[in-house]
């Protein structure tokens, strides 16, 4: 197949900017482009939320002494397990750290994710599957009116317990 | 248009001439009588398409047809050239727009009402279930047609100069099609929708695997930014639903329309469809109308290609034998019409015969088990079950970028327009397909049988970054890349290397999709059949 190409002299096709006028013209054009791009990026600021619908992440769980040793409680609407052991109280989120499904706690105390088969120990430690890290422990506090409060968006290091 | 004017004045109506000397009222009367004819002449400014000249006028003076050239190469019109896939994809997009607007009349993008409005559409709205079925199956068919259209363009070398940029535009349309499907998936607000989008949004967050490994997540967290931009919240909820709705019904369709226009316009500017050199051999008797132009004194051309003569490229009229082109009207319109009617018919039959599924209402407390994405994302879902970041972001980005860059890496000019570039290409394709199939099936068997790093005692506690970088998914990519480099070295041809790579990805995609669709069950465990799934 032959191809029709009309060739111009190299200098005519891509004339290098030589004069001051060319330079100023190019500078003006690129400034306009840059301003436009920045404006578009600025417009993207709007959909980046500064307040979240779940921003009140503090949830009340009841009186601390209601949680007994050996009988963990689950709060499905908060995706939260609350345990009491010798040291005190701790809470583990059941949201799988892989892709956000809800890991189910089995009879043996282990957590299993139904979506891609990640497995976590009774303390939330990663045992297998594609999850990058163990289940998240969330912060527990006792409010002035003696109610146990969990902050579902505030992670604490695994092993942190609340004496209450 | 100038030529329209000259024609109208030369065929002045006798009735109008007779009224010239009469009173204004008679003039009005005769004007009224001749109005239908005048209106027709104003609407269609040329005669019946009986001569080649009138046929070309029919095409280029019509707003809707002038995207087509007035004559087309006969090779472009054969069904074996394109299999009608491009037209089918476009027709499906049009069907989706029309049925989508109809569904918008009743659909309410609110978490309290979305599911109920779906039930209304399915059980109360007249023809609602049918329109929704057609929308659903057309969406699936459009994804399938985009895949096949891409494969056709690839194997016939349609990405080569001067069509490199149009190939890149096509990749953009491919990504947009998947984006339209994904955003539409959430809208029914059923269990499948909720959990598939939860998984999708967390894939957007998965770059944290990398930033965590580098220890910079606290300062630089693109994963979190992407997820928040997509969901407007930490979990899928009202904010996410309205965002997906806006993307699905206006943002993505508008961008898609613009890219479709560029895609079509580029086909014209790049000289029509790609064709092999053999297509310009002796003309065949293939029954196209007006193929043999009459030898009578031809009227002066109404349209010249003077400007286009200055452009590089291959327009049918530039430096090209006219004898192998046929008038677009009616030949191309028959072909396009046939592809359109077949596509519409298939969607109507599917919509009539099969109901689009709707699960129970979304329940953020209990995940669907297994939570499967639509079929075209299941290959990716198998990959994310090895590593969220690599399977969901890394490997798709590598594949899309790699395929988009093919025309710039392979610039060989030989055998354009020939399927598989001839017998050698067919051998490379077959060999690559066999190799990729063996590799993927072997690796799947291995991972199902023995697991991966975390399941072995010696490597149970390797850092996440090792799993991210070394998992079955990255092994496939490395194997395919090495094989293609080997093919380039063995054949001395970049085209053969491109064929090897593309074939490997295509076969890998098909097998992973099949495997995840059929053989993955609850907890993403392996099952031979659906009937083996545990009852729960």
Question: Can you describe this structure in just a few lines?
Answer:
Helix content of chain A is 17%, strand content 26%. Chain A is of the alpha+beta class and 164 residues long.
Structure description:
The complex is a heterodimer of chains A (164) and B (536). Chain A has helices at 10-13, 20-43; strands spanning 58-62, 73-75, 80-84, 89-93, 104-105, 111-112, 119-120, 126-128, 137-142, 148-156. By secondary structure, chain A is α+β, with helices and mostly antiparallel strands. The termini of chain B are far apart. Mean pLDDT of chain B is 86; it is low at 1-10, 293-300 and 305-321. With 536 residues, chain B is mainly alpha-helical. Chain B contains 20 helices and two strands. The longest helix of chain B has 32 residues, at 238-269. Chain B has three domains: 1-53, no CATH class; 79-281 and 327-368, Cytochrome Bc1 Complex, Chain C, CATH 1.20.810.10; 384-536, no CATH class. Chains A and B meet through β8 of A and α10, α11, α12, α13 and α18 of B.
């Amino acid at each position: 197949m032959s191809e029709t190409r009309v060739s111009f002299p190299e200098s005519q096709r891509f004339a290098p900017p030589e004069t001051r006028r060319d330079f100023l013209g190019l500078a003006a054009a690129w400034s306009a482009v840059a301003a436009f791009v920045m404006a578009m990026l600025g417009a993207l600021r709007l959909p980046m939320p500064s307040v979240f619908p779940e921003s009140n992440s503090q949830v009340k769980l009841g009186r601390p002494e209601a949680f007994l040793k050996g009988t963990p409680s689950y709060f499905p609407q908060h995706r939260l397990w609350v345990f009491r052991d010798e040291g005190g109280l701790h809470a583990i989120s059941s949201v799988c750290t892989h892709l956000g499904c809800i890991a189910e706690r089995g009879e043996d105390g282990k957590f299993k994710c139904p979506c891609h088969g990640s497995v976590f120990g009774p303390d939330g430690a990663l045992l297998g599957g594609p999850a990058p890290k163990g289940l998240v422990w969330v912060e527990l506090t006792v409010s002035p009116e003696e109610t146990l409060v969990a902050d579902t968006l505030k992670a604490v290091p695994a092993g942190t317990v609340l004496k209450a | 248009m100038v030529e329209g004017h000259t024609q109208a004045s030369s065929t002045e109506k006798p009735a109008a001439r007779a009224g010239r000397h009469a009173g204004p009222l008679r003039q009005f009367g005769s004007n009224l009588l001749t109005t239908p004819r005048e209106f027709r002449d104003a609407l269609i400014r040329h005669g019946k398409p009986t001569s080649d000249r009138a046929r070309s006028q029919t095409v280029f003076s019509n707003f809707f047809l002038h995207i087509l050239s007035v004559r087309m190469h006969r090779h472009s019109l054969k069904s074996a050239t394109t299999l009608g896939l491009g037209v089918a994809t476009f027709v499906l997009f049009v069907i989706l727009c029309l049925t989508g607007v109809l569904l918008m009349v009743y659909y309410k993008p609110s978490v309290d009402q979305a599911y109920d409005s779906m039930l209304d559409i399915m059980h109360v709205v007249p023809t609602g279930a049918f329109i929704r079925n057609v929308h659903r199956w057309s969406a699936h068919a459009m994804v399938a047609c985009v895949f096949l259209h891409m494969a056709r363009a690839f194997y016939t070398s349609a990405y080569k100069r001067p069509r490199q940029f149009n190939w890149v535009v096509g990749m953009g349309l491919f990504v947009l099609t998947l984006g339209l499907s994904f955003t539409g998936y959430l809208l029914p607000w059923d269990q499948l929708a909720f959990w598939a989008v939860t998984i999708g949004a967390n894939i957007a967050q998965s770059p944290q695997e990398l930033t965590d490994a580098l220890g910079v997540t606290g300062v630089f967290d693109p994963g979190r930014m992407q997820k928040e931009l997509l969901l407007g919240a930490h979990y899928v909820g009202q904010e996410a639903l309205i965002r997906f709705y806006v993307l699905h019904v206006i943002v993505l369709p508008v961008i898609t329309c613009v890219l479709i226009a560029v895609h079509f316009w580029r086909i014209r500017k790049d000289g029509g469809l790609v064709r092999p050199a053999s297509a310009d051999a002796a003309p065949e008797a293939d029954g196209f109308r007006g193929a043999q132009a009459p030898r009578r004194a031809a009227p002066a051309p109404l349209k010249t290609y003077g400007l286009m003569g200055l452009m590089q490229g291959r327009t049918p009229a530039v430096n090209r034998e006219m004898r192998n082109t046929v008038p677009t009207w009616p030949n191309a319109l028959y072909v396009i019409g046939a592809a359109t009617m077949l596509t519409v018919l298939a969607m109507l039959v599917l919509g009539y015969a099969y109901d689009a599924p709707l699960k129970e209402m979304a329940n953020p407390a209990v995940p669907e088990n297994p939570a499967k994405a639509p079929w075209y994302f299941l290959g990716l879902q198998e990959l994310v079950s090895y590593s969220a970041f690599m399977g969901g972001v890394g490997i798709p980005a590598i594949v899309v970028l790699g395929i988009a860059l093919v025309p710039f890496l392979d610039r060989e000019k030989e055998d354009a327009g020939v399927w598989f570039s001839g017998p050698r290409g067919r051998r490379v394709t077959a060999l690559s397909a066999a190799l990729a199939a063996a590799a993927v099936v072997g690796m799947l068997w291995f991972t199902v049988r023995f697991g991966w790093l975390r399941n072995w005692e010696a490597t149970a506690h390797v850092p996440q970054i090792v799993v991210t970088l070394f998992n079955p998914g990255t092994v496939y990519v490395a194997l395919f890349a090495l094989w293609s480099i080997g093919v380039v070295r063995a054949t001395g041809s970049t085209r053969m290397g491109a064929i090897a790579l593309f074939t490997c990805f295509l076969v890998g995609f098909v097998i992973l999709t099949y495997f995840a669709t059929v053989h993955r069950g609850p907890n993403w465990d392996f099952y031979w059949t659906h009937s083996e799934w545990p009852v729960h």
